[in-house]
Amino acid sequence: MPVMSVGGLASGLDTNSIIAQLTALEQMKVTREEQKKENAQKTLEKFKDLQTRLGNLASKASALETLNKFNVFKSTSNYEDFATVSGKEGATSGKYEIVVKQLAATQKIASKNFEAVNKTMADYGLMNKGDEPIKISLSTSVAAQKADPKKFVEVAITANDTLKDIVNKINSAEGAGVKASIMSMANGENRLILTAVDTGTNGFSLQEDGGTDLLGKLGIIDNSKQRAVSGNTMTILGGGAATLENTFKDLNTVLNRNNFENGDKIGIYLPEENGAGQGGWITFNMFDSNGDARKIGDVLSEINAALKTSGANFTASLNNSGEIILEGDLKNDQNFNSDVLEKVKIQMGTFKKADADLTDDDIIVKKNMGSLTNRDIFANVINEGQNAFYTIDGMSISSQSNDDEKTINGTVFTFKKVSKPEMEPIKVSLDLDKESIVNNITAFIEEYNTLMSFIEENARATVKEETDRATGQKRSKREVGPFTGDSNISGLRDNLKRMVTGVIDELTGNKGNGYSTLNSSASRIGITTERNGSLSIDNEKLTKALDTDFEGVRRLFTVNNFSDTLGFSVGNFNKNSTTGIYKIDVNGDVTMNGQPVKINSITANIITLENGISIETPGLGQEAQVTFVRGIASQIANFVEKAKSSVDGYFKTSENTYQDRIDSIQKRVDELQARVDNYNARISKQFASLEKNMGNLQSQTSNMLSALSTISYQQK
After folding, report:
1. CA of 585: how far to CAs of 11, 142, 565, 595, 667, in Å?
2. How many domains does the chain have?
3. What is the pLDDT of residues 208-259, one digit of tens each?
4. In contact, 365 and 266? CB cutoff 8 Å
5. Do 251 and 204 lie in a common domain?
6. Residues pairing with 136 in the sheet
7. Which residues of 365-400 are buried (b: 16+ CB within 10 A; e: fewer)?
8. Are residues 356 and 279 part of one domain?
9. What beta strand segments (E) does 335-425 contain?
10. Judgement on whether residues 84 and 115 belong to the same structural domain of the protein
11. Considering just the CA atoms, what is the radius of gyration of the chain in Å?
């Protein structure tokens, strides 16, 4: 416990008070630093508040930052349980009558039976211990391909893997178009179940490296034969997939009508470069001798008879989605193996010459079945994938998905149930909700005003008059805010103002960039700056801008791109991708605003640049320019995303700066406090020494006076 001291007993001085006052004078230096620390901590708290407010602004911007988010539509359906409509990028208002004929279904297959799920591939004799892992490629889903164009992802199966391990590896493969599970039945059967992520006949596909045939040994793939499927489907008038019982006059060939005529044929083109089999065109009559349209099943039977006569070991059929299927020993037929399969053609129409003399110029194509593609043949099919079929305003349509977003640009039709015969057509409508768009823009601007007001309030320095208590005189005192004089905050404020009120050069329309609009800044659509620096909205002018140039207003706020050449566009991009005009020459070299841009790769008609932008092209060999734009909301959202970077973002860097300042002040406080404590100890020791010396002196004086008194007495 501290030692109690009583000062001034010898000297008569109030040394404790003197020490306290002298120490207090030194302690004032510590107090001033502690006040600095307190102010720095308040600044840090205000900065954290600023982060929250910037996040709020980014949240409001997110409703406007992309083309599909900016599109706000009101949709209606008189049978919402059966079909609905919604809008996305590129959508326009419209009213449609829908009849749902068939829903898309998901492909599901099973492996062979296994006695236990925890036994390894080596235990089952499907692989040997010590074997290299077998790589299985899984096709990617439609959604994954939109983000990344790669068609397959890989999983590696080892000899130590169980069925459970295989399930986990498949389900962990990012972007895979298939999900796995295990079905354990009461009779002791255990099967690996593979289910497509996407609906439709495309389903999923599997590829195996190295010729090990693990998929065959698992009872998943039947490698004894091969399958090829037509790229297009046959739909019938009135809607639905064609069947073997339909005639060729039942088919919907163009705009909800059939334009086949007596004498038209279905032709199969075999690549001429094959060394075996007949090359060129082989045709079959679609009409009989009486001029009546033949059944599709009868013509397929005739085609199969011709295939058998030619020695082909495969047959043609029609699936439940109206696609032509070739199945059998395709790999050993030089007209249909995988190397030349895509060159085979199946077309319907008018063939003007005999088969031997036919060229493509001699054919009027009325129905093209598209290129044939290879498909897996699964050994144990639980569900076949099938397409959706419906009519829109009487026109027959096929879709791989129950969410058809391809038929009408920007419009998504969602099918839930097959229409009942007694129902009237499902009436759906899509109308642009301008009121909601105005509300979203207003909310964004109001949040911007709130943020800028917060920054201004905390950056302002004020001068106040106060009265000196000692003298009674008035004096001016300058009070600063947490952000006063902070150049980083000033820069942030200026950047925000530039992003929201500045002109977007890429939208000025004077650069030959393939797109032109007058709406290149917020002021042109009624968003103006008031004298106090806040923004105001002229709702009438904004609504008029939406009416007259909706696309221009949308591009003013969103991240978007456009090109002067059909087929060129920006695919992927990231937060660091640079806006500007990208020019592509015939060799695939790219410049941005006149400066060369480094190319990371060119694959499958996609040019990937170092800055994260990928440019989709119809093929090299032609010049084009693509403009990449970040509108107002996109700039704000992208700025906040970059600011939140955990490594070197503005938030983290600034927060570290403030904390470093606090830590530095605290270090100074600790140093000064140590000095004060040492000073207090030193002067306390000095005054104690003074008291002691004076006490000794008083004692000596007292002794001397006593001695002198004794001598004087004796002398008397």
Report:
1. 99, 30, 12, 13, 61
2. 3
3. 987 789 999 999 999 899 999 999 999 999 999 999 999 999 999 988 899 9
4. no
5. no
6. 155, 208
7. ebbebbbbebbbebbbeeebbbbbbbbbeebbbbbb
8. yes
9. 345-351, 363-368, 373-375, 380-383, 388-392, 395-399, 403-404, 411-415
10. no
11. 41
* pLDDT tens, position by position, 678-697: 878 888 787 777 777 777 77
DSSP 295: B
Q: In this predicted structure, what is the pLDDT of residue 274?
A: 47
Which residue shows structure tokens 């962990």? 172
With 0-12 / 13-18 / 19 or more C-beta atoms within 10 angstroms meaning exposed / middle / buried, residue 476 is exposed
CA distance 85 to 412: 6
Tell me the per-residue pLDDT of 277-324, one tens digit each, with 9 for 90 and over. 567 899 999 999 999 999 999 999 999 999 898 888 999 999 999 999
How many other CB atoms sit within 10 Å of the CB of residue 600? 12
301/269 same-domain check: yes
| Residues in Cβ contact with 270 at an 8 Å cutoff, skipping those fewer than 6 apart | 277, 278, 279, 280, 281, 282, 335, 344
Range of the domain at 115: 106-222
- Note whether 328 and 282 are within 8 A (CB): no
Residues 178 and 252 occupy one common structural domain: no
Same domain as 110, residue 94: no
203 shares its domain with 163: yes
Q: What is d(CA 442, CA 60) in angstroms, rounded to the nearest whole number?
A: 10
Local structure of 165: helix, strand or coil: helix
